[in-house]
Amino acid sequence: REYFAQFGVIEDAWVMKDKPTGRPRGFGFVRYKSLASVDAVMDEAERHYIEGARVAVERAVTKHQMASGGFEEERPERPERQEYP
């Protein structure tokens, strides 16, 4: 979260975890307040490193966008997620 905050105001961020073990699955999501922040992250997509490890970034798309084959300019709906204790 701290690393990605340099690109804009973060509304939410979470790491996906394996339900049985609670261990991180190796990916997560960052939701920014502004789409301009997402664009800033994507402009430097090949340059993201945290603690020496390269971090791959991708623009998240909704199920609807995946089905229609394109990215809509409007803000996507918040993806569903499960809370883990």
Q: What would you note in describing this structure?
A:
With 85 residues, the chain is α+β, with helices and mostly antiparallel strands. The protein contains two helices and four strands, in the order E-E-H-E-E-H. It has helices at 35-43, 63-68, and strands spanning 10-17, 24-32, 49-50, 53-54. The chain has a two-stranded antiparallel sheet with strand order 1-2. Strands 3-4 form a two-stranded antiparallel ribbon. A hairpin with a 2-residue loop joins strand 3 (49-50) and strand 4 (53-54). The chain is globular and about 35 Å long. 5% of the residues are buried.
Write the H/E string, N to C: EEHEEH
Quick one: overall form?
globular
β content, as a range? 15-25%
Helix count from the secondary structure assignment: 2
Radius of gyration: 14 Å
Give average pLDDT, whole number.
Answer: 84
* Strand runs, count: 4
Largest sheet: 2 strands, antiparallel
Q: Compute the separation of the termini in Å.
A: 19 Å
Structural class: alpha+beta
Describe the strand arrangement of the main beta sheet, using strand numbers: 1-2
> Any low-confidence stretches, pLDDT <50, length ≥5?
none
Helicity, as a percent range? 10-25%
